[in-house]
Design a protein that fits this description.
Shape: globular
Distance between the termini: 35 Å
Length: 434
C-alpha cells in the first residue's frame, strides 16, 4: 500500500477503505508517513469530504493509536458530556454533581483553556487543593463511590489526533467537518464512557460561527458515536453572548455553586437542565426527558446536588467549605465598573471578544505556556435584551492590577446599546439524536 495512491484516491473523490485509513493513521503516528503527505490527504479530505463509514473508521483508527481507558469496573451506564467550547461555559462544574446526584455515573475527562475559551480543569483548580491527577483505579473507585470524578487528559490518549490536529492548525484544514468530528469523538471514545451528550455551540463565541455549520458538525459526531456503539446525542446551543454572567475561573466556580444552590443565572440553569435531562435518559435512569428534568430539579431543591459537589471536591483534595463560603476562592485585589455611556437596551455582546477581554486580565491563556490568574475575570451585569440606564454598570472587572484601560476599551467596543429592545437569541437551537 502506498500513501500517494491513498492521496490520489481521495483527491478524486473516491471512498477510502478501512484498511487504507488505518494504514494512514498508523504510519503517520509512528513517523513513517511524513507531514507533507499527511497534509496533502487532509486537504483532499477538506475538499472531497468523507462518507459516514469513512468518518467512523478514521475516528476508531485514532482511538486505537494510543491508550484507551477501561471503565468496565464502574457500575451502570457511564455518561460523558462534551462542549465544543465557549465563553462562561461552566456547565461541567454544575452537570457533574447534578447528574451524579440522580445516581448516574459521570466519568469525565476534561482539558485546560486556551485563548478565549475556558478550561474545566483550570476552573476546578481555583478550589484550594483540588487536583485532577488520579490513576484509572482511583478514578473508577471515586465514580463508584460518589458517582462523579473529573481527571485531566491522559498523555498517550489518541496520539494520532494530537499530531493531526497540530498539522491541520498550520495547513488551513482546521474547519473540515470530518476532521473536527473525528478529532473530538476519538478523545471521547478513548475516554471509555458508554454514552456521550454533546453541547455544540454556535455563534460569535463558538468554534462554529453559523447554525448551519454547527448542525453539520453535531450530526457528524452523533453518527460517528452511534456507529461505533456509543449512544450519542447533541444539543445546539447559543454562544452569541457569554453563558451566565461570570467569565473567569474562580468567578465561574462561584456561579456554578450558586446554580447548584438553585440561584444560578437563568440561561446556565436551563442549559444544565436540558443537557442533564439527556444524560439521565441515555443512562437509563428516566424514561422521559420530563421525568429526568423533575429528578434534576428535585436534587437541586433538596440540596443533594450541592452535597455531591462537596463530596466530589473533597475526594479530589479540594476544600469542600467553598460550597458554603465562596469567599474562600481566590479573590482579585481590585474591582472596576464599566458604566453604560447611554440609556437603552443591550443589543449585542460579542462573546469571543469579551472572552478575550477576560484573557487580557490573565483569566485565560494566550499560548499553552501562559500562566493563568485564577482570581481575575469579568462579571456581566447586563445580558442581551436587558434595559440599561446611562451610567449603570454593564460589566464589573475583577483584576490584580490597576491599569485595565485596554480591557475597558475592548468591553465598550463589543457591547452595543440600542434604542429598541432586541429579540433575545434562543438558548437551545436544536436537539439531534440521529
Amino acid at each position: 500500500m502506498r500513501m500517494v495512491d491513498i492521496i490520489e484516491k481521495k483527491r478524486d473523490g473516491l471512498e477510502l477503505t478501512t484498511e487504507e485509513i488505518r494504514f494512514f493513521i498508523e504510519g503517520y503516528t509512528n513517523g513513517t508517513i511524513p507531514d507533507y503527505q499527511a497534509s496533502s490527504l487532509a486537504m483532499a479530505i477538506y475538499f472531497q469530504d468523507m462518507s459516514d463509514r469513512e468518518r467512523a473508521d478514521l475516528t476508531m483508527a485514532m482511538v486505537e493509536s494510543g491508550d484507551q481507558i477501561d471503565l468496565s469496573s464502574i457500575e451502570g451506564i457511564k455518561v460523558d458530556k462534551h462542549s465544543t467550547g465557549g465563553v462562561g461555559d461552566t456547565t461541567t462544574l454544575v452537570l457533574g454533581p447534578l447528574v451524579a446526584a440522580t445516581g448516574v455515573p459521570v466519568a469525565k475527562m476534561s482539558g485546560r483553556g486556551l485563548g478565549h475559551t475556558g478550561g474545566t480543569i483550570d476552573k476546578l483548580e481555583a478550589i484550594e487543593g483540588f487536583h485532577v491527577e488520579l490513576s484509572t483505579e482511583q478514578f473508577a473507585k471515586q465514580v463508584n463511590d460518589i458517582k462523579v470524578a473529573v481527571i485531566g487528559q491522559s498523555g498517550n490518549l489518541t496520539p494520532a489526533d494530537k499530531k493531526l490536529y497540530a498539522l491541520r492548525d498550520v495547513t488551513g484544514t482546521v474547519s473540515s467537518i470530518p476532521l473536527i468530528a473525528s478529532s473530538i469523538m476519538s478523545k471521547k471514545i478513548a475516554a471509555g464512557s458508554d454514552a456521550i451528550v454533546l453541547d455544540v455551540k454556535t455563534g460569535d463565541g463558538a468554534f462554529m460561527k453559523t447554525k448551519e455549520d454547527s448542525i453539520k458538525l453535531a450530526k457528524a459526531m452523533v453518527k460517528i458515536g452511534n456507529a461505533v456503539g456509543r449512544k450519542t446525542m447533541a444539543i445546539i446551543s447559543d454562544m452569541d453572548q457569554p453563558l451566565g454572567f461570570a467569565i473567569g475561573n474562580a468567578l465561574e466556580v462561584k456561579e456554578a455553586i450558586e446554580t447548584l444552590q438553585g440561584n444560578g443565572p437563568e440561561d446556565l440553569t436551563e442549559l444544565c437542565l436540558t443537557l442533564g435531562s439527556q444524560m439521565v435518559v441515555v443512562a437509563g435512569h428516566a424514561e422521559t426527558l420530563e421525568d429526568a428534568r423533575a429528578q434534576l430539579q428535585e436534587v437541586i431543591a433538596n440540596g443533594k446536588a450541592l452535597e455531591v459537589f462537596k463530596k466530589f471536591v473533597a475526594a479530589q483534595g479540594g476544600n469542600p467549605a467553598v460550597a458554603d463560603d465562596t469567599s474562600l476562592l481566590p479573590q482579585a485585589k481590585y474591582t472596576f465598573e464599566v458604566p453604560a455611556k447611554q440609556a437603552g437596551f443591550v443589543g449585542h455582546i460579542v462573546a469571543d471578544a469579551i472572552g478575550t477581554a477576560a484573557m487580557l486580565l490573565g483569566a485565560g491563556r494566550a499560548t499553552k505556556e501562559s500562566e493563568i490568574d485564577l482570581a481575575v475575570g469579568l462579571m456581566l451585569n447586563k445580558k442581551v435584551g436587558d434595559a440599561v440606564a446611562e451610567g449603570e454598570s454593564l460589566v464589573t472587572i475583577y483584576a490584580n492590577r490597576e491599569d485595565v484601560q485596554e480591557v475597558i476599551e475592548k468591553i465598550y467596543a463589543n457591547i452595543s446599546i440600542v434604542a429598541e429592545q432586541p429579540e433575545v437569541p434562543a438558548l437551545i437551537e436544536e436537539i439531534i439524536t440521529e
